[in-house]
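DATA CLASS: polypeptide
GOAL: derive structure tokens

***
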Amino acid sequence: MENKRCFANRFADYKGALCTGQDNDAIVRKVIATIEKILKKVPTDLNDCDGGLYDGPAGVAYMLYYVSECPLFSQQRDVYLKTAKQVIDVSVRYVDGEQDKNMRAAFLLGGAGIYAVAAMVYKALGLSDFVKPLTKFRNLWEVCAPINFLECGSDELFVGRSGYLCAALVLKQKLEIEILSPDQIRAICRAIIESGKQYARKKRKAFPLMYSYYGTEYLGAAHGLSSILQMLLSYQELLSSGERELVWQSVDFLMNQEQNCNWPAELGAMIERENELVHWCHGAPGVAYLFAKAYLINKKPQYLDTCICSGELVWQKGLLKKGPGICHGVAGSAYVFLLLYRLTGNSKYMYRAQRFAEFLFSDEFKVGSCSVTSIYSLFEGLSGTVCFLVDLLQPDKSEFPLFSVFV
């Protein structure tokens, strides 16, 4: 029976040699050609700035910034950065006019992410103006510190508190500036933990921390427990020993929810094999980053084993039909191999990432994958694919866009 969600992986697995035909020059040419295609499609009008970094034009600005940081694109750097500035300036104007202060505090769908990327782009251009969006970003911490700041769910990655912490982490990494004070970070972490405790108590859970988003108890990276715990681990040195204990208990609880190297989209669901979600947003390709973070912190082999198990599933079922993107597309799957390459140094994972890159340009993929509405976008479209291709050129620095486990 044909799988509705993924193409069959017909590639032979690693036999000790990397792919030929994927040299740096070939990849650089693909990146430049894909960017040309994206820039023809990206809207530059104030009325088309919805979608934030996720599927709005702001994500294109991040991609251009990211490519410009890679030394292999030094000739294109100035043009890419100036274009990034034009795109992000419009998004900043759009979000400055946002009446809903909660949306201004959102990372992937609102203002916090746009201000963070604006600061990165301005700094890369050598503009002292980068302080302005940084200040706007910092002031948003007060919005998300109250325990129930969002009715739909205050803690997830796209619009909630963990997203705000994730943006601060990206800024720390890219600008080498600690944007928030330890007290501000601590206040947000405490709110996340208190919120999770309250929810777990109210719903009589047998484990210490749980969250819901629009009434669903998600487990995956997009809106669920895994990315919330990942952000708490990223700042674990600011937590009390009791708070850390709750976080690690929750990490182990989530590890035990695994079903055949995957995780259901929501708590308590059984995975139906014929309808299995193997996406960054829902399933192993996103949950793997939590266990990578856990492994980097305490080196316990079970966390690395869990990542490796996720990678095996992605090799089998990760050639997704939903498009080229990083949220639920082939590039998002392939990033798991680059993550495992960084964790283990095993060339098998580099080979697998190369094979997935090859598939992205195959006729089978072009004919058989779904068409994407915002084809230029970072999470659903080609901008995320470009970031992945750039990371194939620099595997030792590679990481899923805006979602670092190595800080």
About this structure: The radius of gyration is 20 Å.
